[in-house]
Design a protein that fits this description.
Elements lengths: L5 E9 L4 E9 L4 H8 L1 H4 L10 E3 L2 E3 L10 E4 L7 H18 L1
C-alpha cells in the first residue's frame, strides 16, 4: 500500500539533443520548486535558470510555489529560438512567392 503522505511526480526537461523525465516521490504538499530542486535537474543542466525558464504542469504555466498533486508532471520550458508568428509569416510569404512563379 502506498504511503498517503507521499506523492509521485515527474520532472521533465529537454534540450535539442536529450530529453529527461525524472520520477520522484515527494512529501505531500510539495511545490513545483521543491520537485525541481529534489530532481537534480538543475545540477545536470546548469543552463537552466528558474528566473528565465518558465515552468508548468502538464503544459499549463505554473509558478514555483504552486502545489503538486499525485502523478503531476512538472515541465521546464526552454526559451523559444524563433517567434512562431514570425515563422508562419515567412512561410506564408514563401508560399505566395512560389504560387506567383508557377
Amino acid at each position: 500500500m502506498e504511503n498517503a503522505d507521499r506523492i509521485r511526480v515527474e520532472v521533465a526537461y529537454a534540450t535539442e539533443d536529450e530529453q529527461v523525465i525524472l520520477e520522484l516521490s515527494l512529501v505531500s504538499g510539495s511545490t513545483v520548486g521543491d520537485a525541481i530542486e529534489v530532481s537534480g535537474v538543475l545540477k545536470r543542466f546548469p543552463e537552466i535558470s528558474l528566473d528565465a525558464n518558465k515552468v508548468g504542469i502538464f503544459g499549463k504555466l505554473s509558478r514555483l510555489q504552486d502545489p503538486l498533486w499525485d502523478h503531476d508532471r512538472v515541465e521546464i520550458y526552454r526559451p523559444l529560438i524563433a517567434d512562431p508568428r514570425e515563422v508562419r509569416r515567412q512561410r506564408a510569404a514563401e508560399a505566395k512567392t512560389k504560387v506567383k512563379k508557377s
